[in-house]
Amino acid sequence: MSEKNPFVIAQTQLDKCAEILHLDPAVHAILRVPRREIHVSIPVRMDDGSLRVFQGFRVQYNDAKGPTKGGIRFHPDETIDTVRALSAWMTWKCAVADIPLGGAKGGVICDPKSMSVGELERLSRGYIQAVWQFIGPDRDVPAPDVYTNPQIMAWMMDEYSRCAGKNQFGVITGKPLPVGGTLGRGDATARGGMFAIREAAEVCGVDLSRARVAIQGYGNAGFYAAKLCRELFGAKVVAVSDSQGGIYNPDGLVPETVQEFKDKTCSVANFPRCEPITNEEMLGLDIEILIPAALENVITGENASTVKARIIAELANGPTTPDADDILFANGVHVIPDFLCNAGGVTVSYFEMVQNFYMYYWEEALVYERLDKKMTLAYHAVHLVSKQYQINMRQAAYIVAVQRVAEAMKLRGWV
Ligand code: NAD
């Protein structure tokens, strides 16, 4: 297995943390592997009348602290090891954000861009029919992730409710507002990341009102990150990219205009008055903040030394390999690690579950205020440990998270 296998990376990160913490070997052994994996085959009638069978997964990594939680991806390159890694990171994310949930993740191998709306709906419902007995509001609660969206969550919630024979809004988060969604969920991941960036900038002495920002990925996380960097800090977004290519304008981009362009052309590439830029070139830009918001393994041992940014805010999951981490730490680049930086999404998802449970919905300002508090506390808990142990922020985040999960396991008598 190569070093780019995300699950091997997740295990390596845990092993490093176990070493620093002198973690009880029994706790370590349990935390190295998922508690439960569900592999399903989903037959879907396609529009042309043919039947295709899709492969799907749900991995429930650890539920010591509460029901498991984690998104569902629809992606042609999905693998069980990616889902395993993401479910482990969800466990650490919920623990670091100090919310009473464990970690899980789901995925279906498919190419949603080539599927019709009807085919996507049948696939979404088929996935739930295959896993519904293993999920539920007090068991395991999915959410959107790469190439899944609120509409897909609404279909999935509806299908689960049909299977359960009653309305079960709390089974899934990231739903549209009229069917049990929460205000503030749309941009929660990016907004949570902004609160972490605000605290990191303070620590690193970066003036955000003059900061230049580059963002890799222009989907849910990337677009809102661009928008909020300008809106909240007055920072200048100089480069963005998506799967078709990237654009660079040193004078700054207007994120909403770029989004309008992307809505028409399906990509940010070729946006007027910009130079084209590759992902590799983006990493080496002379900027203050770099935000990976696409896929895994983009900052590696080969390119990490080219990074000039002071802060890397990992909105994507797993964008940095362990050897890149060492280089970035040695070079004084402050990395806000994925499961801390992008914890805003799951935090507001948790707020959505809470609102579904007591059927009383909060105003947007209250969601933001509570999110800010959670993210700020989480950032400083991690930063404190990184100073105490003289270790990088990712290892520190692991220490905070693993200690919390281990404590729950011990109290429950699992070890
Ligand atoms: P999305 O599907 O909305 O967007 C993904 C974006 O990445 C798209 O713009 C796509 O074109 C781009 N992309 C794909 N391949 C690329 C490449 N090679 N180079 C550059 N861009 C590329 O997904 P999202 O919800 O924004 O998620 C992005 C990342 O953030 C993922 O790692 C996801 O796990 C993580 N994340 C998202 C949330 C959330 O609430 N949306 C929460 C936590 C973590």
Query: What is the H/E string?
Result: HHEEEHEHEHHEHEEHEHEEHEHHHH
Q: Name the shape in a single word.
A: globular
Q: Order of strands across the widest beta sheet? A: 9-8-7-6-10-11-12
Task: Work out the number of β strands.
Answer: 12
Instruction: Give the uncertain stretches in residue-range form.
Output: none
CATH second-level architecture of the domain at 188-336: 3-Layer(aba) Sandwich
**Mean pLDDT over the residues:** 96
Structural class: alpha/beta
| Rg value | 20 Å
Main beta sheet, described?
Answer: 7 strands, mixed
CATH class type of the domain at 188-336? Alpha Beta
CATH fold name of the domain at 188-336, please? Answer: Rossmann fold
CATH superfamily of the domain at 188-336: NAD(P)-binding Rossmann-like Domain
Helix count from the secondary structure assignment: 14
Question: What is the terminal-to-terminal distance?
Answer: 30 Å
Helix content: 40-55%
Strand content: 15-25%
Attached small molecules: nicotinamide-adenine-dinucleotide
3D structure, described in words:
α1 (6-21) runs parallel beside α3, α6 (188-204) packs across α13 (364-389) and α13 packs across α14. The protein is globular. The relative contact order is 0.14. The longest helix has 26 residues, at 364-389. Among the domains are: 33-173, Rossmann fold (3-Layer(aba) Sandwich); 188-336, NAD(P)-binding Rossmann-like Domain (Rossmann fold, 3-Layer(aba) Sandwich). β3 (68-75), α3 (80-96) and β4 (102-109) form a beta-alpha-beta unit. It is built from 14 helices and twelve strands. The mean pLDDT is 96. Helix content is 46%, strand content 17%. It is an alpha/beta fold. The strands form two sheets. The protein has a seven-stranded mixed beta sheet, with helices on both faces. The protein starts with 5 loop residues before the first helix and ends with a helix. The structure holds nicotinamide-adenine-dinucleotide (NAD). Nicotinamide-adenine-dinucleotide (NAD) is lined by residues 145-147, 189, 216-222, 241-243, 279, 293-295, 315-317, 342, 345. Nicotinamide-adenine-dinucleotide (NAD) binds next to α7 and β7.
